[in-house]
Amino acid sequence: MPFKRRRLGKTDYKKRLKLLLSKKPRLVVRRSLKYITAQIIDFSAKGDKTLVAATSKELKKLGWDFACDNLPAAYLTGLLIGKRALEKGIKEAVLDSGLYTSTKGNRIYAVAKGAIDAGLKVPVSEEMFPSEERIKGLHIANYLEKFKNLPEKFEELKKKISG
């Protein structure tokens, strides 16, 4: 009988083993319907240890007035986790996308791009990242009139996080 987490469709143990064999911390990115969560997790025999965490919900405290589950919010969350990781002395991590399908330019790669821009070393192919226009939210600003100030707010928050 397979492990319970495999039966429930929560863990891909083959993929997890490959990530753990790298002996590097994992940048774990998970998304819900409203938020994006990023954690840097290290393996321990007694159970994984979360070293650093950031969620897109924290962007609201920094002045983000828009949805917390879109590409710009994902990038800013990656920037936040990358900054915190460097403060804790973590310099590199391996991207763990879990059971999500790897699609070019999705939110998981936006988080990775944000972490890399903050200075964290994450081995990801450049072609998988979303375009700069989508990261800045221009596709949303062009589509809806009420979000026309999204790119300006994005740049303002990016400067605030970067310092």
Layout of secondary structure:
Blueprint: H1 4-7, H2 13-21, E1 26-31, E2 36-42, E3 49-55, H3 71-87, E4 94-96, H4 107-118, H5 132-136, H6 138-143, H7 150-162
Parallel strand pairs: 1-4
Antiparallel strand pairs: 1-2, 2-3
Helix pairs in contact: 3-4, 3-7
Which CATH architecture is right?
A: 2-Layer Sandwich
Low-confidence stretches: none
Q: What strand line-up does the widest sheet have?
A: 3-2-1-4
* Overall spatial form: globular
Count of strand segments: 4
Question: How would you describe this structure to a colleague?
Answer:
The chain has 163 residues and is an alpha+beta fold. It has one domain (4-162): Nucleotidyltransferase, domain 5 (2-Layer Sandwich), CATH 3.30.420.100. The chain contains 7 helices and 4 strands, in the order ααβββαβαααα. The chain has helices at residues 4-7, 13-21, 71-87, 107-118, 132-136, 138-143, 150-162, and strands at 26-31, 36-42, 49-55, 94-96. It has a 4-stranded mixed β-sheet with strand order 3-2-1-4, sandwiched between helices. A hairpin with a 4-residue loop joins strand 1 (26-31) and strand 2 (36-42). Helix 3 (71-87) runs parallel beside helix 4 (107-118). The N and C termini lie far apart (51 Å). The mean pLDDT is 91.
